[in-house]
């Protein structure tokens, strides 16, 4: 059970009147980071090899499908993931500098986004780019 007296003290001592420009910049960089990741997924869709259906093998039209990574789109993908990592790190840095009160919280979605983007960068750099 929560102590209502402690909760009211936190509310009484709260002098902030809503989101200031720092909080709004955290929200904006968070949104830009996720949009950057979504754009990277578009580049991934364009860069990856096409799936070869069984029907194409049956009709012997395998040559009409691209079976290797597209170099130009793969480079776009790699640099977009780097940009996504940079924006996410900036947002995390602003968030960590801002957290001073008990009521402030860390945006864990940024940590997840950074982990996924770094893993994708490492995969593209070690597995896909050496083929070119």
TrEMBL record:
The chain crosses the membrane at residues 21-44, 76-96, 108-126. Keywords: Membrane, Transmembrane, Transmembrane helix. This is Uncharacterized protein. It comes from Catenovulum agarivorans DS-2.
